[in-house]
Amino acid sequence: MGDKFQVGKLGSYNNFNFFNFYIERGYADKKPATKIKKINDIKRLKTLSDEDIDKLIAGATNKFTRDIITFLIYTGCRKGEALNLKWDDVDLQNGVIAMKGTKTKYDRYIPISNALKSILGGGNSSLENIKKS
Question: What is the reported pTM?
């Protein structure tokens, strides 16, 4: 679909036409939100393409770096969150990682995918010796 029919724009379009109708019919003198500035630029999140991710992982010089990169990609956590993570926060049995003391001050829980479980558990992870307590 074109930009004209995006969800946020559709609501604005309907409101705009609704108030134009009221002004034309004499039900209102002016639009109530004329002094509100319009948001023109929507910030887009920068994301990596699948190809970029493959290149990043392939460029890792050792298993530890590859595991860290994979962990960050699958969890979406911040660098600081990953560095502060302890094994007590990782619950492989229930498939969840507890992110505590985050930048936003709220705890959050990240589900552990099978791909992530393969680098966290199973005895072959280079991440096993990080922050045991």
Answer: 0.58
